[in-house]
């Protein structure tokens, strides 16, 4: 896919808004989970199956979105998926019964997955046209949206609004943001396939794409490990009160957000290969801090180091997926995003299984080994 027209500041900002809106919508779901559980009167196992519908929806949509963008352009796909995501987000507060909630979460996940692939495809095109690294900054806006979405929803409900009315307020803002940026999203997309043949909806990743996807799996696995298991680790193995156990993930999130907003300058100065190499080593050292130094402060430092190290790995790998020549860009990014999110969704369950057989220390140690392997593969994955 190549730039359909002159790309400038307006397209840069529209890309930032797309990432910000997606982060806000995604994180708004988290504060709703206890209310959904109470309203539907369900247990943890049923809730887990409902949340799985969200992940399944994302993975179903991601592989085919690249082809849709090549046929219809970023503007149509991003605008459509974000609009439907906002509608399904509001419906999460009122979906009737377990089947209705399952269907709505499936749709919400599909729209999120589609948006994720399409906005990263636009980001690659915009970055190429600018001639400088921009991907980390785009992902920084997603992280910023992730922080503010949960905070805004919690604040609105603390002020006395019902989950439904809180979502209406947030969604109104999201739709205004979408209306503002939609006109500057890339309207057309020229497929790299010039043979006249229609591209398949999905192909098995091959060549460098398979390697980049595998490294994304490891990077997302590390993020999922901190997201789902840091509080449990701090509570059970370091004796921290459950009220404060979430601070480990907070340290990680703040470090990752700061790392992404400064990441473009770092990538421009050091190059993508060094960023993946040193980022992988830093994140691995962070997990080793958590595992081998039995002090609370060391655990917080460790999770912070994981956030710093992991912050720019995925943006650099997405850029590498857009620059490789093993597969068309749309299919390559769709495959890489799918493999990455598979690590985020399935990885924490694997970590839990390993922890059940041994301990969380062993699970985190295995993640650290994966990050060391990622660092060792940096040159092969990022060189054109």
What does this molecule look like?
The protein has 384 residues and is mostly helical. The chain folds into 2 domains: 9-184, Up-down Bundle (Growth Hormone, Chain: A), CATH 1.20.1250; 207-382, Up-down Bundle (Growth Hormone, Chain: A). The chain has helices at residues 9-28, 33-40, 44-91, 97-130, 135-158, 163-181, 207-236, 242-245, 247-270, 272-292, 296-310, 313-323, 329-357, 360-376, 378-382. The radius of gyration is 20 Å and the shape is globular. The model is unreliable at 190-196 (pLDDT under 50).
Q: Per CATH, what is the topology of the largest domain?
A: Growth Hormone, Chain: A
Main sheet attributes: strand count, strand direction, barrel closure: none
Which CATH architecture of the largest domain?
Answer: Up-down Bundle
Give the distance, in angstroms, between the N- and C-terminal Cα atoms: 17 Å
Tally of individual domains? 2
SSE string, helix = H, strand = E?
HHHHHHHHHHHHHHH
Structural class: mainly alpha
Shape: globular
Give the helix proportion (percent range): over 70%
As a percent range, the share of strand residues is under 5%
Low-confidence runs (pLDDT<50, min 5 residues)?
190-196
CATH class of the largest domain: Mainly Alpha
Under CATH, the homologous superfamily of the largest domain reads: MFS general substrate transporter like domains
**Number of helices, counting only DSSP H or I runs of 4 residues or more:** 15
- What is the mean predicted local confidence, pLDDT? 87
Radius of gyration: 20 Å
Q: Report the count of strand segments.
A: 0
